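FIELD: query
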Amino acid sequence: MSARIHLPTGWVTFVFTDIEGSTRLAQLLGPGYRPVLAEHRRLLRRTIVATEGAELLTEGDSFFLAFSDASAALTACLTAQRALGDHEWPTPEAAPRVRMGLHTGWAEPRDGEYASPEVHRAARVAAAAHGGQVLCSAATAGRANPLPVDASLLDLGLHRLRGFDDRERLYQLVAPGLERQFPRPRTADAVAHNLPIQVTSFVGRQAERVELRELVAGHRLVTVLGAGGGGKTRLAVELATDLVEQYPDGVWFVDIAAVTDPGLVAFAIAAVLGLRPEPGRPMVDTLVEYASARRMLIVLDTCDAQPSACADVVSRLLAGGNGVRVLATTREPLALPGEVVWRIPPLSVDPSPDGTESDAVALLLDRTTAARGGREPDPAESADLRRVVRRLDGLPLAIELAAARLRVLSVGQLAERLDDVLGTLDAGREARVPPADPDRADGQRPADRGAAQTGATVPDPASPGARSAVERHLTMQATVTWSYRTLGPRAARLLRWLAVFAGPVDLPTVEWLLGDDPLDPLSVLVDKSLVLAEPHVAGCSYRMLDPIRAYAARRLAEAGEEQAARNRHVAWSKHALERAHLGPNGQPVTLSLYALDPLAGELRAALRWCATGGSARTGLRLAGGLDQWWRERGLAREGRLWLFRLYGRLAETGEAIPEGELAAAYHMHSLHAGADGEFAEELRYSQRAEAAARQAGDAGLLARVLAGRAAPLVDMGQFAEAERVCREVIDWAYEQGVDSEALFAVLRLAELLWRRGALDEAAELLGAARPVEASRPVDRGRRSVDMLLGMVALARGDLVAAHEHLLAALRSRMNHGFHGRACDTLNAIAVRCAAGGEPLTAARLFGAAQATRAGLRSASGIYDAYWTQQQTALRRLLGDVVFDEAYGEGSALGLDEATALALGVEHPDLAADSARFSARPGGSGPGTAGTVPRQPTATADRHTGHA
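FIELD: result
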C-alpha cells in the first residue's frame, strides 16, 4: 500500500469483499478467469475512487477498504454491485457474484495499517454474506445517514459471528438493482437441525433405538428398510433427535416424498442446507463441495419415491468427504457399496419379563386413550387389546387404524371383527408394497405415484407361493390384497376409481364418479376398512389411507381404466373449481380463496394427469382457476412449475389451443414470476401474453394483459416508465370501452402516485375505481381500493380515514383468504398505530406481518422501503430492546391472532381537535405528517362494494 494513501481515523467503516465461489469460477473459466478478475477489480476500484475510500489490501479476488463515512461506504458497495450486475460479462456463467460486509468502529492506523478487533468483526460480517449481498453491522447502520437514494436496510436480526461471543445485529442493503432473496446469513448460530416436531408420543422401540444408534455410529450409510406402516420415519426422526449434539454441522431432515422429479433430489437436500444454485454448475456438485468438509447427518426420508436419484446423490455425498453420514428410510435398498440395510421389526407383542405391557399394547393403549378423548380403556379390556395387536402382527400403522376404530367400537367388538378377517386370510402372503407412503398419515403424498412408479408385483392369491407365506409376515399390503380379492365387481371398481382422488370425498362426489348409486359398494368398502368414513355435522366424508390408495391406483392401471378414471377426475375438478366461483343461484360471487383451499390437493392431482396423460388445455384452465390462490399462499413457484409442465405437454401432443387462452396463461405466468422474484421471466411472459392477446383480437383480454405490464417495470425500479404505461393502458381501455378491464393499471397507478406524493390525484383515481372493483367478483374481496386509500390517508396524517379504510381492507382480505395482501394491511395498520401513540402494538404488528410474509416466501413489493423506514423510526423511538421484544411477540402470532390484534385497535379520537380536522391543502408523500380533507367518494362507509 502506498504511504501516500490517507487512512481515516476515529469512526472508520471497514469493508471486505470477495467473489463467492471464486475457485469454482476460475476452474470453470480457465484462461478466461484472469480478464474477469481484472474487470471485477476495475469496477470496484472505480467506486472506491468516486467515494474516497482507502484501499488497504487487494489479494486475489478480495478487497479490504476503509472509509471515513459510513454512508459513503454503503454508496460504494451499492454502486459496485450495480456496476457488476449491469456489466456485460463474456457469458452469464462468468459473472462474478461478490459478497460485501461492512462494520464501523473506532480505530486508529499505526504504521500504515489497522490493528483492531473492529477489522475482524467487519471480516466476519462479510463472511456471513452471500454472493450479490451487502451486509452491514448495526454500528454501520446507525451511522449511515443518509442512506443512498432509494435504498433501505433490512433488519435480519441478531446473529453470532464466528470468533465473537456477543450477538451482532445484521442488516441487508436493499435497493433497486440488487437481489433481494438470500438464504440465512452464514453465521455461527445457524440452526443445528430441522427435524420435524412430533405431535404424538413415541412409544417403545428402546432396543431398536440402541441397535440402530450403534449402526449409525459405525457406518456412513444406514438404510432403514421395511413395509409401509412399519414406523420407519418416526424411528429415524427419534434417533436423529438424540444425535443432534454429535454433529457440529447439523442433523438435516429431507422429505423425498415431496420431490416430484428425479432431477430435484439434489435441490431438495441443498435447499434444506441453505444452498443456492451456482451458474454453470450442477447442483449436486455444489452440494458435495459444501458437505465435503463438514460433519453432519442427513436423514433422507422415503427414498423409494425417487430411488435411483437418491442413490446417485448419496453416492456422490459419501465419496465427497468423510464427515457426512446418511440415515435413509425406504422400502427397497439403495444398493450402494458400504450400505448397511437394517430392517425394522414389528412392535413386540409379548409382555416384557418385568410384567409390563408389550410395545404394541402400549401403543394401542396410548392411541385409544387419545381417540376416546382422554378416557383410558377399561382394565377388563386388556385381554382383547392383546388379541388385537397379535392379529395385527405389531404393525404400527395397523395399530393406529385399530385405535381410530375404537372411537365407535369396543375393544372386544374390534377383536371379534379382526379375528373374522384374519381367520380367512391366506397364510401371510407377502407382497412388495407399491411406492406409496403408508408410514405417513399427513396426506401430502401424490395419490397416483404408486401406480405411476411401482415396479412391484403382487402374487396371485391362488398361487402356491402366496399360500406358503407365514402369518407373522402379515403386512398392510397383504391385508389390502386379501380384502380386494373378496370384493364384488362394483365395490372393486369403486375402490379402483376412488384412487384418483387425493383426499376425502363426500357422498355426492362418489355418486358422480361412479355414475350410479354408490351406497351399496361404498358400504362394503367401509365395512372392510378399505375406505374410512368420517362423520361431520354436514354429513360423512370418505377417504382411503395412502397405502390403500396406492394399491388401488395400481389395480386401476392394470384394469386398463386409468385414462377414463383420471379424465373423469379432471372433469370433476374443473366442475368443483367452477362451483367455487358461483353462489347457490349459479351467479358469480366474491372470490374466496378459502373455497379453493380444500380443492388444492385434488387440483394438483388433476394437473399432474393433464401434464402427463391428459389435456394440457384443460390443465391450463385449471391452473387459471388457482391463479390468485398460488400467489396468496406463497406458492407462485409451484404455479410456474405447473405451467412449464403444461407447456411441455402442449409441445408433446400438438393440442390446439386458442390464442386467447394462451394469453391468459402467459399473463398468469408473468404474475407468478413477479411474485417469485423472477423479474426477467415476468417481463418475458408479459410480452408473450400481449402478443397472444393481440392475435386473439379480444380488447378486454388485451386490456387485462396490458394492465399488468407495469408490474415488471415496478419490480425493476422503473417507476416513471411504469406510470407512463399505466396511463396509456387506462386511456386505451377507455377508448375501447373496456375500461373496467384496466382496473389493475388503475390500482398500480394509484400506488405510484402515492409513492411520489401525488395524493390528491391518487385519491380521486381510487374514488372512481371503487364501483369498478365492487362490480368484479374476482377482485372485490381484496379491497385494494380501501387499502390504497388507507395508505393515502396515512401519508396525509389522517388517522381516522386510515383506520377505517385499512380495517375494512383487512376484514375483507382475511374473510376471503388473501393472506399475502393481508400482510401489507397489517404493516399499514402498524404505521397507523405508531402515528396514533400505540408503538408497542405497531411493533407487534410489524413482527407478525414479517413472520407471515416470510412463511409465504413473498416480498413486500412497492411498499418495502416504506415499511423499513417506518420500522426504523419506531425502533429509534422504543429502543432496540423494547422494539425487539415487541417485534418478537408479534412474530409468534399466527395470522388470525395478528388480525384480531389489528381489528382490536381503538378507533382514533373524533374530537374537534383531532388531527383529522387540522387539514392542510396539497398532497404529501409517504411518511409525511401533512393532512388534507378526505375525498367524499373515498370513505370507508360509502360505496363499500363488498359482496
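FIELD: remark
The two ends are 71 Å apart (CA to CA).
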